[in-house]
Automatic annotation (TrEMBL):
Residue ranges of domain Ketosynthase family 3 (KS3) in the record: 4-430
Biased composition, class Low complexity, residue ranges: 52-65
Domain spans labelled Carrier: 916-994
Region span, Disordered: 50-72
Keywords: Acyltransferase, Antibiotic biosynthesis, Phosphopantetheine, Phosphoprotein, Transferase
UniProt superkingdom: Bacteria
Protein name as annotated: Type I polyketide synthase
Organism: Streptomyces crystallinus
Pfam families: Acyl_transf_1, KAsynt_C_assoc, ketoacyl-synt, Ketoacyl-synt_C, PP-binding
Amino acid sequence: MSAPEPVAVVGLDCRFPGARDAQEFWKLLMEGRDGTRRVPEERWEADRYRLADPAAPGEARPPGRSNTVRGGFIDDPDAFDPAFFGIAPREAAAMDPQQRLLLQCSWRAIEDAAMAPEDLAGTDTGVFVGVMANEWAHLQLADYDGITARHGSGNGYFMGANRVSYHLDLKGPSLAVDTACSSSLVALHLAAGALRAGDCDYALAGGTNLIMTPVLNIFYTQAGLSAPDGRCKPFSASADGIGRAEGVAVLVLRRLSDALADRQPVYAVLRGTGVNQDGRSNGITAPNRWAQQQLIERVWRSAEVGADDIGFIEAHGTGTLLGDMMEAQALGHLTSGRSGGSVALGSVKSNFGHAEGAAGIAGVVKTVLALHHRTVPPSRFADDENPKLQLSGRRLTLLRSPLRLPSGTVHAAVSSFGMGGTNAHAVLSSPPRAVHRSGERVPGVFTVSARSARQLGPNLLAQADALARQPEDRLAQLCWTSNRVKSRLPHRVAVAAGDLATLVAGLREAAGRTHDEDGAVRRTAPAVAFAFTGQGAQHPGMAASWYTTSPGYARLLDEIDGHLAAHLGLSVRDAVLEGDPGVHRTGLAQPALFAVEYAMAGALVDAGVRPAAVIGHSIGEFAAACAAGVLDPADAARLVARRGALMEALPDGGGMLAVPLPEAEVEALLTAPGRMCVAAVNGPRSTVVAGHLDELALMRAALADRGVTARPLTVSHAFHSPLMRPAVEPFRAEGADVQVREPALPVFSTVYGRVMGGEERMDAAYWARQLTAPVRFADAAAELYASGVTHIVEVGPRAVLTPLLTRLRPSGAEPVSCLAAHPGERAPRHPLHHLLGQLWSAGVTPAWDSLYPPADRVPRRLPPYVFDDSFRAWRSATAPELPAPRLPATDAAAAEPPAAATAETCPPIPDGGSPHRVSEVTRRLVCRVGGHDPAAVRDRSRLAEDLGFDSIQVMELKTRIENELPELGSLPVEELLASLETVGDLSRYLGERLLVPTASTAPSEPSAPEGPRT
């Protein structure tokens, strides 16, 4: 029999008594701490069900009493982040907290596998959950009058798995498993089998348990199985019964070959699993040594391991005299013949108790972490070993201190046995060694996103704390991982850095800022325009940092430099990178600007930022034409080189003057129209005049007498003026043979002052006209703003256009962000990375891979998401935390308490004004149905995505609206569903029905509602 295909554990998350996550769990195990405590007050009145005195041996125990008030309880089991998963507060309050724990644990486990949970949406990923307790249902469903539709989806074993599949949109097998104490190890067995059978490519295997009532405590006491001190003491002479515990854990599984192919980090490898049954033994609740032994033998044989290969065993280890004896005998039958020393034996139950439905997965998580850290934690109560078990003779030993595992492959075994006879066993091994060394040191962009602005801070700090402990050479790998895993949620922060210390400082600084709840990314994809800078932005060494930090920019600058060198006889690239002051000469300035902007735009496109439109200022129009696909780079390089040479050859004596007045006023001041003209209109009060220097000096003095300060520009000639005419015909001839293509995207011409269209072409005539025509940047920019772009990125070596564009931005319109790709001397050290971070924060999806060499595209584990824990919903047998409000008779069908707000906290309905009344009714009823805080419900709030409305809640909302506004008649479900994207949409729909009476508003038979899933 060949060994089954190995399955990799690639991610995990857990919460157990005394441990909020896997890191704290490992620390608890290594320190050998006790995670038990007294029954928390919110569970039940422990003393009410406690035996006054322990019953003497042989005496009957009083019914309805427990012999202990201690157990393993997790902290804050009622905490949940319903908004994160799009769940309305009222629905969350009705859900079994085990479902809430599994949802958050699953998300964190997937992130721990260095994957974005959104990447699994729509895939055949399976979900297999072990669950034994259903105490929430007993507490909730005893009140028949209070039962609502939400209680059906909020309770039941099946929903533990289905909740995860539904909210993460997973399409593979989804099932809950109840085999009592072995439930979660059986779930792991089924998950591994589904992967090997090809039923899924990823699987989530987990377990959960919450202690909400004393029922099982009483049962264990009556059956003589309960430890009086509430602690499990496996294989100890003082073992006297079960101590109950709770917890939740989820593993992410994948076929090992697939994980290795993707260089995914692997905790451990699942080599084989198996399940069997005791059959008819000496009692349905009693363990069966022979069944255990047969199962372990079969699984070891299947995994192709023997007793000598097993490095340690994580036993079931309940801590009852009978259970410990049966397990020791079953294991000893296999281990007693070992040729080496004794094999380490332990049970996680010694640390916090028997987690029942999560017990098996708790042992697996311990084993996985031990293989990952190559250390076996010590066993509590090892100093009090039960001599009757004869462990040493069976070559088994309890560890008094941690055991360091040897190098090479190490195997471990895990057992879990269920009351009722279903046994499960697994063999795991250490992962294959994989070393992924970083390549050359490169900067990166670290991304952090959250569902709400409130959670950005905690998540930023969690990442900063973890990164501070990482090796410096992993910077790029960690950034690349964050781009894959931490980049999909709406509230975002990006930090560009070239070293870990800078990154950590940037994350902590961002965590200290107040983040605006309205600052989420746009719901529609951003449209980015490129604005290309004109002459005057050049400076020695301009944008040199792009060459060293962006391989794409370096490649494109080299490429365009080759085209230009054929016409210039020198290297523009070298002049720029060496800081040649000659870049201020027109003959070099124009080719240098064109080269820098061409390479910069190409690097942005390589990085996934594709322009929706382009605009260029003077010489910037040539790079814009290349970006729009109008000109071939080689042709554009020839034109630009010839343009610069022709202009530099013109006589000196010309200049340009920036005048802070409207164009019309400036035109009236031109005293010598043949020698002066308006050369550029950059804004309503930003006009540039070009002409002879003496004429400009007179104009400047005249303006000064009027109290107007005009500023001379640092230029060599009077560009865009009649003084350029000698260059026009030679330049027209130069461009006569240039192939001009139709633009692939809108080009906002600064020659025409509008978007190009119809038969207009950027041909030789256009470029010749551009030499003398004024630059109508303000008019072209106004049209660009009206085109629907959301962002304008200035492509150039200095932020020259950005302040102009900011001033030109129309008021009252949808906001448009203006960004500079390279703000000049003030540019950050890694400008492309910084810009991509800004654009990603606004909703752009960069092609992150372009920033990192292949050697650095390695997934690394990052801390998983930190959820908002401010929501609380808990029910106990005696003291519900949330009092159920009395609702009107019309609300009896939905009489359940909201979790965050009651109807009484919503605004009242005013009497006057139908539209306003409808809006207030809509908001109030949405608050009531969902249980939302009115302050959090706005017109733009989406009912499904933001407020968690599903078909059940929509039907409840429909009924409430019809009761509140009877003049609407019966609302057609089809029309209602079509109008339900946002609260504002619903208000408008209802208002229109009231204002425009139609036959559809007359009372009619109600439409058949869409029912819930069955």
